[in-house]
Amino acid sequence: MPGTFSQIYIQYVFAVKGRENLLLNPWREEVFKYMAGIIKGKNQKPIIVNGVTDHVHVFVGLKPAMSISDLIKDVKNNSSNFINENKFVKGRFEWQEGYGAFSYSHSQLDNVYQYILNQEEHHRKTSFKQEYISFLKKFEIQYEEKYLFDWIQ
């Protein structure tokens, strides 16, 4: 729509079904590039896509014509198909239901980018569960733990 200007930055966080450690090197990087391509194909701005073996962070500049839920639905559906078609894992790959979506201001871009870029290092000290719950608390999102991702005990 002419005359519409926006600046919306969203960080998505989502996990492999069952939080299995299936996103392995070297093909994990290929999946992240594929996800960025999906985002570009939807005329959105992929800022960074990165993660570790059991979860992913996707940081995007989102135009208001695209809903937060529609974009991540497309990213998750298409990337799981890509993983399965390329037979990167034995059996069927799936993402867990749900996701976290957290908004940021322009002044926070570099900090969020650096945080996502350094996921391997970050998760040497902090579990995904600790990280995810800290996001929910930081953004003051009410939750019941029984509705969070299926945590591996």
TrEMBL record:
Pfam families per UniProt: Y1_Tnp (PF01797)
A GO term, aspect molecular function: DNA binding
SUPFAM superfamilies: Transposase IS200-like (SSF143422)
Name of the encoding gene: tnpA
BP term (GO), one: DNA transposition
The name this protein goes by in its record: IS200/IS605 family transposase
Transposase IS200-like domain span: 5-119
SMART domains given in the database record: Y1_Tnp (SM01321)
